[in-house]
Write a structure and sequence with these properties.
The chain has five helices and seven strands; from the N terminus they run αβαβαβαβαβββ. It is α/β, with parallel strands linked by helices. α2 links the parallel β1 and β2. It comes from Winogradskyella epiphytica. Pfam families: Cons_hypoth95 (PF03602). This is 16S rRNA (Guanine(966)-N(2))-methyltransferase RsmD.
Length: 178
């Protein structure tokens, strides 16, 4: 994986093969960040990266100037890798080792963008729990957005607060807003 734009543009990051991850493709990530770039100033936002895995999305935000980034994952190896990479690049990414759903139930922090990249094999109930907890606990700022990455075979359009989806190859991004 590589960082698409910003201060660390072009830098390659190689995650250990033992991590249970499926990083967002460069093509899908570039398309997603083009959308975000048209709506927000990266320096002015706060980001929550759920199921962070390799930290791919967090690094992209940090490279573009976002300094309020929280990355959450239940896997110790993922959190360790994100911490090491963030330190090597001098990025301000706060990591939290936690089950994502437990984190969402307890968090009181508001974010401009919440990005979630859960395992593609999640069942419908698990996917529906993400926007449910985010909006029930008011974790988004007024102009904020929840973006959920999922397989093109998963349809989230019936969930509350669903706005729209974008399809990039086998990747889908569903957007949820107030």
């Amino acid at each position: 994986m590589r960082i698409i734009s910003g201060l660390y543009k072009g830098r390659r990051i190689t995650a250990p093969k033992k991590l249970p991850v499926r990083p967002t493709t460069d093509m899908a990530k570039e398309a997603l960040f083009n959308i975000i770039n048209n709506q927000y100033y990266f320096e002015d936002i706060s980001v929550l990266d759920l199921f962070t895995g390799t930290g791919n999305i967090s690094y992209e935000f940090a490279s573009r100037g976002t300094d309020q980034i929280t990355a959450v994952d239940a896997n110790f190896g993922c959190i360790k890798f994100v911490n090491e990479t963030a330190e090597a690049f001098d990025m301000s990414i706060t990591t939290i080792k936690s089950d994502v759903f437990k984190f969402l139930e307890k968090s009181a922090q508001k974010y401009t963008i919440i990005f979630a990249d859960p395992p593609y094999n999640f069942d419908e109930n698990a996917f529906s729990k993400l926007p449910e907890l985010v909006f029930q606990n008011a974790l988004l700022e007024d102009e904020g957005v929840l973006i959920v990455e999922h397989s093109k075979h998963t349809d989230l359009s019936e969930l509350d607060h669903y706005s729209h989806s974008k399809n990039y190859g086998g990747n889908m991004f569903s957007f949820f807003e107030y």
